[in-house]
Specification:
With about 475 residues, the chain is an alpha+beta fold. The protein has 11 helices and 28 strands. It is about 20% helix and about 35% strand. Helix 3 crosses helix 6, helix 3 crosses helix 7 and helix 6 packs across helix 7.
Length: about 475
């Protein structure tokens, strides 16, 4: 029996706003050390079969790069054209694996969870693997408080040490119901992690949601390769009515087991939970970045750009990024998503985009945004280059800050070293490349009347892009 990890890397990036955004959600951040949550998740299952990653198109290149940095070679990276929750994602993964191993099981893992004790997690997976071959297995965490943001699992008869049959699943309760669940000792938090026999899961989904299974089959059959990625068919997948694994399958199926997970688990679903997992001082404050704190207690204080001075705060989260500041009483931090909703309705860029935009060749970050000029910093990773392109409405000045740049400008190609610069007139074909072994960093000054991404006319591109 082979366990195939399937790592789900979607998310809207709202609960840890303004650090997390739709364009760069929390699993891509280094919240607990040098690795991102995605990298930690992938390394946690390194002893199993190579993982299959399920993500959206926008994040594909940064996910590929983070896996490379973590030393993880995935079985594949599966691109969803739109998010349709976990049941279709699991079905697409199961269909890809179906037939390759008749005893295969998929271990469905969110990419944005934190485990303080990875070995305990692996022991729990080992217990789940010993369940009857046709059992659908979920993982539950003993609750330590009446949390209203989690689903709950009521435990039934014992199967073996650390595992029980599931009596029922419960949606997110109100505060009083959650308190009752915790006091009863009969319930676990639903961790959203599942070990599923491929054939059994597909059979259960076909019985409960035959249309969903048929649409997933069509999306997989019509999928196509794109560089290192596999794209599910857009029309087929978009037609699916999204549902969670819990609702579409687990709540309706027979022989569903739950394994207790005592691994220091957190879904890092709020600033309070991130604070609880972060080192704190004698006053209970977690302080990160350039922060001066005076008479503060039990607060999460983070300054990623510029100085933050906090005075007399108690149980408050303050998060300052380069373009937004959040100040929230931790008792109300579940409402951060509502603030993001309001900002989206107002078409605020800060609701979804970070200052840094990731590209397959590296990244760029806006430093100054003026009426007829933009200033950006670019990093081009070793061995990568931008497309051969042209702009009609802007000219560009490039200054090399670190590394060496190979520049194509019109019919000439030349090398620029640190502190050297060049000018690219509007209407001139050009390309920037890093042929060295170290990252290339440049400052780009754009001057003109229009700076939209649709003013990029591509002639050749290593990544198959045509626009944007």
């Amino acid at each position: 029996m082979t366990i195939h990890p399937v790592i789900l890397s979607g998310g809207s990036g709202t609960r840890l706003w303004p650090l997390s955004r739709e364009s760069f959600p929390k699993q891509l951040h280094n919240l607990f050390g040098e690795r991102s949550l995605l990298q930690e998740t992938a390394r946690r299952v390194a002893g199993m079969a190579p993982p299959l990653i399920v993500c959206n198109d926008e994040h594909r290149f940064v996910i590929g790069e983070q896996l490379r940095e973590a030393g993880v070679t995935p079985r594949g990276i599966l691109l969803e054209p739109v998010g349709r929750n976990t049941a279709p994602a699991a079905a697409a993964a199961a269909l890809i694996l179906d037939g390759s191993d008749e005893d295969a099981r998929i271990l469905m893992l969110p990419s944005d969870h934190h485990m303080r004790d990875p070995e305990a997690f692996l022991r729990a997976v080992g217990i789940a693997a010993e369940m009857p071959a046709d059992a659908l297995v979920c993982f539950g965490v003993a609750p330590d408080r009446p949390h209203t943001g989690y689903g709950y699992i009521r435990r039934g008869d014992t199967i073996c040490n650390g595992a029980q049959w599931v009596e029922r699943f419960v949606e997110k309760p109100d505060a009083e119901t959650a308190r009752h669940y915790v006091e009863s000792g009969e319930y676990l938090w639903n961790a959203g992690i599942f070990l599923l026999p491929v054939a059994r899961y597909l059979a259960e989904l076909g019985a409960a949601r035959p249309e969903m299974l048929a649409q997933c089959q069509q999306a997989v059959e019509k999928a196509h390769r794109d560089l290192d990625f596999t794209r599910l068919d857009g029309d087929s997948f978009a037609s699916i009515r999204g549902e969670s694994i819990d609702y579409a399958v687990m709540e309706k199926a027979e022989r569903v087991a739950v394994v207790g997970l005592d691994a220091g688990w957190s879904d890092v679903g709020s600033w309070s939970s991130l604070h609880a997992e972060s080192p704190s001082d004698d006053q209970g404050n977690a302080i990160l970045g350039d922060v001066t704190a005076i008479d503060c207690r039990n607060s999460y204080l983070r300054g990623d750009r510029g100085l933050v001075a906090a005075i007399g705060l108690d149980n408050i989260a303050v998060v300052a990024t380069g373009d937004a500041v959040l100040v929230v009483d931790k008792k109300s931090d579940q409402a951060v998503s509502e603030a993001v909703r309001i900002l989206k309705a107002a078409n605020r860029r800060e609701a979804v985009q970070t200052l840094r935009d990731w590209r397959p060749w590296g990244w760029f970050e806006t430093l100054v945004d003026g009426p007829r000029f933009h200033v950006k910093q670019l990093q081009v990773d070793p061995g990568h280059r931008l497309s051969l392109q042209m702009h009609y409405h802007r000219s560009e000045h490039w200054v090399v800050v670190e590394g060496a740049a190979t520049v194509t400008r019109g019919d000439e190609t030349f090398l620029l070293h640190e502190s050297e610069s060049t000018f690219i007139p509007a209407g001139t074909k050009h390309r920037l490349a890093n042929e060295g072994r170290l990252p290339l960093k440049i400052v780009e000054i754009q001057v003109g009347a229009y700076f939209g991404e649709d003013d990029i006319i591509r002639f050749t591109d290593d990544f198959g892009r045509r626009e944007g």
